[in-house]
Structure formats: C-alpha cells, structure tokens
Write a structure and sequence with these properties.
Layout: E1 8-15, H1 23-35, H2 45-50, H3 60-76, E2 80-87, H4 94-111, H5 113-117, E3 122-125, H6 131-142, E4 146-149
Helix pairs in contact: 1-3, 4-6
Length: 150
C-alpha cells in the first residue's frame, strides 16, 4: 500500500534580527517544558501534531500543552514568520513539487527583498532534514548576501 501524504507541503520561515536577543525567552520555554514533565531535546511541530518520534508517548492533552507553550514563546519573541504552502495535488511528482516549492519560496523572498537588504548579511539556518528542501534553499539564497548554515 502506498504511503499517503498530507495535501499540503508547508515550509515556515522564522525571521530574527540577531540584534534582538531572545535568550531569555528561550530559557523560559526550556524551563516551562522541563517543569511540565517533558524530556525533550528538540520540538518540531509536525511530529508533535502527528504523535511521531519522541512525541508518540504523550497524550493529545500533553501535546496540546506543548503546542501552547510554543505559541506563547513565538508571541513573546521579537521574531516574525511566514509560511509557504504548496498543494501536493497540483504536483504530479517530486520534481514538479520541488519546482513549485522553489518558485514559491523565491517569490516570497523576493517580496521581502527590501527587508533583507537592510542587513549586511542574512544567515539561513536549516536542520538539513530533507535533501530537496536543502537544495532549494541553497539555490534561492545563493544569489544574495546570504550564508547557508546547516
């Protein structure tokens, strides 16, 4: 039986001017997570929602509590974010999906080019979780004053 994929492929970008320190918010999130009985090295929303990996042993209420902690963290940090969404049903295969994703990310970054131009250097952090996405990010950001860090 073929693996069924969600209808949409989502990539979220988090923008953080490193002149605005978020150490206090990070420490408070880590402490809150630890004090709630979670023993986690990292938090990725997809696995939390789908009850995968290290989150498989947590109930829906526990995972919901964790998501609220993350939302609170995002709301208190001097950051902004943007999500690119691609409808998988409009892509017949991985190559088409990658092409659509690259175009949409490039369009979104071009839309925010004025914001990026205000910085001497833009650093892109990516956990290298998906090869196709890593390649797309390298191509999209290679033409600018960006530095890709994996």
């Amino acid at each position: 039986m073929a693996k069924e994929y969600p209808s949409y492929y989502l990539v979220t970008f988090v923008f953080h001017n490193q002149e605005n320190c978020i150490d206090e918010q990070v420490s408070k999130l880590e402490e809150s997570v630890r004090n709630s009985g979670f023993h986690l090295e990292y938090i990725h929303t997809g696995p939390v929602i789908r009850k995968e990996e290290v989150f498989a042993g947590y109930s829906i209420d526990e995972r919901r509590k964790l998501l609220y902690k993350m939302l609170n963290f995002v709301n208190k940090c001097p950051i902004s974010h943007m999500t690119v969404a691609i409808d998988r049903r409009e892509a017949a295969d991985k190559i088409t999906l990658s092409g659509k994703l690259a175009k949409e990310i490039n369009r979104a970054m071009s839309f925010h080019a004025k914001f990026f131009s205000g910085f001497d250097k833009v650093i892109v952090y990516y956990d290298n979780g998906q090869n196709e996405l890593g390649a797309i990010l390298n191509v999209v950001f290679s033409g600018s004053s960006s530095e890709c860090v994996e």
